[in-house]
Amino acid sequence: MAKMTLDQLRKLREEKKGDMARRETEGKTIQIIVGMGTCGIAAGAKAAFDAIVKTVDESGLTSQVVIRQTGCMGLCHVEPTVEVVMPGMPATIYGRVDADVAAEIVKKHIVGKTLVDKHIYDRPAVDIVKK
Questions:
Q1: Nearest to 49 by CA among 74, 21, 68, 31
Q2: What is the pLDDT of residues 53-82, one digit of tens each?
Q3: What is the CATH number of domain 39-128?
């Protein structure tokens, strides 16, 4: 293994601090949960996960959003799946989420507080959602 310079070590430390900040849950009110079961991974969930992380970082939302992985959500026919849970919005599961749709979910659902209708596969009925 090649030796690292001091600048390379500093850069690596900053990258790892960012990774750790993403994993911290305290004080974060928004959750994005990516289905990373075997079916999800085979359908491309890793690309969706990476796009979510990138878009959350670019939007400056790292301090508000926790991004998690879970196993199969039971919607194998529409993998990759992503669930979004945030205050003031119904918990929503999106399906057929590729990298572009993942970025759209962050921009529209998280930032714009509007649902991405054409990819919704599960959410509570309107009559049970508390306002």
A1: 68
A2: 999 999 999 889 999 999 988 899 999 999
A3: 3.40.30.10
